[in-house]
Design a protein that fits this description.
Elements: H1 2-18, H2 28-38, E1 41-45, H3 50-62, E2 67-70, H4 75-85, E3 92-96, E4 102-106, H5 108-123
Parallel strand pairs: 1-2
Antiparallel strand pairs: 1-3, 3-4
Helix pairs in contact: 2-5, 3-5
Bound molecules: glutathione.
The site of glutathione has 8 residues, from loops.
């Protein structure tokens, strides 16, 4: 079972690298705005989780350089996720709010919708 999961994980990573979307061409101002946004979010993930791949691909398509933490291999990241978000389920996006509080967003579709909503106004300018 472990071997099959390992092989599937490798296949997922190969497919991800072969199907990477092209990032949009951005002006310096747009890039700066997106970088500022990227500093406020962290994706807790497993490398070979298909739902995490979906989020990573969506962020590439937006030209958003996502900070990621591996909640499978990195014990500290796993604890942060469990304590902050309430459970070890990935993907989970930690959103740092201006108030200093953090919001932990689960569900790949919700995360992608959130990132699209944040980035679209910047890249459509
Ligand atoms: N519907 C979720 C599914 C996420 C999911 O099933 N993630 C798996 C890893 S691929 C997980 O974290 N499982 C642990 C759990 O559910 O407790 C999404 O789209 O984000």
């Amino acid at each position: 079972m472990g071997v099959i999961r390992w092989i599937l994980g490798k296949i997922i990573l190969v497919i991800e690298s072969l199907t990477q979307p092209k990032a949009p061409q951005l002006s310096a101002t747009q890039k700066q705005a997106i970088d500022t946004l990227a500093q406020q979010v962290t994706l807790y993930q497993f490398a070979a989780c298909p739902f995490c791949v979906k989020v990573r691909q969506a962020s590439r398509k937006l030209g958003l350089p996502l900070n990621t933490k591996d909640a499978k291999r990195d014990i500290d990241a796993r604890q942060e996720l469990e304590q902050g978000g309430g459970r070890v389920k990935v993907p989970c996006l930690r959103i740092q709010k201006a108030s200093g509080e953090a919001h932990w967003m689960y569900e790949s579709d919700d995360i992608i919708a959130y990132l699209n909503k944040q980035v679209s106004p910047i890249i459509e300018k």
